[in-house]
């Protein structure tokens, strides 16, 4: 039982480890791998909360750990990616600008943590740091096809949108089987393309995380269908 209660935290720590590895890959010039690790972090982040509720393992420790993991994987790691792929040419100023991303993200997370009990499940206040970090990772993957100025504008916009008071629709009320299928197809196609293009060079964590995520969504799909049949 104690091990079961710790499963969500293991996924959260996996998310944090992805952020750390992403920074390392970015520093070594392997930008595609760094971006993919952020996307894997998103997959793990989408699972830990649901697993905690499913296993009835919600805890204050898990919530704090989740925030710490998010600031690394979706705040620090994307900022390093942007710095090494574009802002490096501005030297110290570029490093300072890249550092704004985790600062705004940390503020957004702190604000969410103290107001989550009062906020609606139908929307988020400001862009979630997970979404912002994922967008920057995807932009980096297709960086050779997107002008640097576009990436810079989106980077700046996301910084301010994270701390804005704009209401962003939440997907929490979207049935997981339907939403999960879309996510699985998207990530499956993306990881397949990366696998074909960087065979033997991608982090081995991809081959663990992707099947694990798909298996999790399949389980949720079957469980949701079973519950519908009972109703």
UniProtKB/TrEMBL annotation:
Listed under catalytic activity are:
a CDP-1,2-diacyl-sn-glycerol + L-serine = a 1,2-diacyl-sn-glycero-3-phospho-L-serine + CMP + H(+)
Q: What is its main location?
A: membrane
Query: If you read the UniProt record, what top EC class would you report for this enzyme, in one word?
Result: transferase
Protein keywords: Lipid biosynthesis, Lipid metabolism, Membrane, Phospholipid biosynthesis, Phospholipid metabolism, Transferase, Transmembrane, Transmembrane helix
UniProt name for this protein? CDP-diacylglycerol--serine O-phosphatidyltransferase
Q: Mind telling me which residue stretches traverse the membrane in this protein?
A: 92-110, 122-143, 149-167, 179-198, 204-222
Topology in the membrane?
A: Multi-pass membrane protein
UniProt keyword annotation of Lipid metabolism present: yes
Identify the PROSITE patterns for this entry.
CDP_ALCOHOL_P_TRANSF
Which InterPro entries does its entry note? CDP-alcohol_PTase-I, CDP-diaglyc--ser_O-PTrfase, CDP-OH_P_trans, CDP-OH_PTrfase_TM_dom, CDP_ALCOHOL_P_TRANSF_CS
Q: Which organism is it from?
A: Peribacillus deserti
Q: Name one GO biological process term.
A: phospholipid biosynthetic process
Subcellular location(s): the record lists: Endomembrane system
A single GO molecular function term of this UniProt record: CDP-diacylglycerol-serine O-phosphatidyltransferase activity
Family label: Belongs to the CDP-alcohol phosphatidyltransferase class-I family.
Q: Please tell me one Gene Ontology term that the record gives under cellular component.
A: endomembrane system
